[in-house]
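*** Protein under study ***
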Amino acid sequence: MNLILFDDPTVRIDLLPFTYTRPVAAVRTGILTIAEKWEKWLNTKPSFLTQGYLSKKFPTVVTTDNLMINGAICPDQALVDAILKLKDGDALYKNHRVIAIRTSEDEIPEVIPGKVFEYSDDIVIIDQVWKIFQNNPEQIKIDFKLITAGRKSAGISDNHTRTYAAENIFVEEGVTIRAAILNAENGPIYLGKNSIVQEGAIIQGPFALGEGGHINMGAKIRSGTTVGPFSKVGGEVSNAVIFGYSNKAHDGFLGNSVIGEWCNLGADTNTSNLKNNYANVKLWSYAKSTYHDTGLLFCGLMMGDHSMCSINTMFNTGTVVGVNSNIFGAGFPKTFVPSFVWGGIDQMETYQLEKSFETAAKVMGRRSMVLTEEYKEILSQVFTITTSYRIPKK
């Protein structure tokens, strides 16, 4: 059986700006990305059926027995059991949405040759950007059980670190902890391989810290937060998801937010996650080309890959920032900042592609990674695709 995770076209648009640079299944919620979840549940490495310009980095592998699964759907035991019962030509649906198809073809067939089954149980589908953080606490719990089953934690040897519900804390090899407070009474805490928790950090579960991640001294990490691999975080963070390789190293508040890869939030950057009038938060929708009511009271910042902001930046409630934008200056930026722009509230200009590459190469070099030609091609395509959103250069 060959596993292919496909992009639902409607979902992909609703998950922009994060899916400009990755397939839907490469979105992280919980400890793992959706793709990593399926890999562990089915014990097989997936490939992706996604946008053409992403296909070099995320290729599709096709065999004579392909299990195609909607890349926006998170697995659980009941769903996995139902999917594994599918035979060649069969399909599993939920409310007219394709969950999975078993096929010998290299694409989703227009006509299902086998049986069509309606899935009766609930599913967790990440089909809006805010659902990434909204589902994060429960996904951390599910991933925690999956990752730690039958394994023993490396434990905490530091005498000055205080733990609550230590049985819900799992520490991978190579973790360093000094004089921290870890409270797992309301949910598990997972510390990935070679991660660091510095002096005075306070962490509430559910919480996940990816491999090589770094929680700075004095940080206050509230429940429902994921700090992805090789990210550095300080200040106060609440119910936020940081995909990986990003920095929020200093004081400042980040709440009910999603931050992509290779982002940097300057010192004392703050995000509002609650409107003064307690009204529902509206977010920019790429699908509707206007603002969409999330139905949420709390919603902060959605920032695409390679974007950054200067010190003391203030983001209003429900702000969306595209890919590779650089925000600076006084005042609140607009609640929709397009991809590849440079500036602040007074003036924004196009962030020229070659200059953005220079910065991205330096940022990635600090993590001993290279900005490849393949990745440049992806960012170039995003630059072209997002042209219509940008403010003309003055």
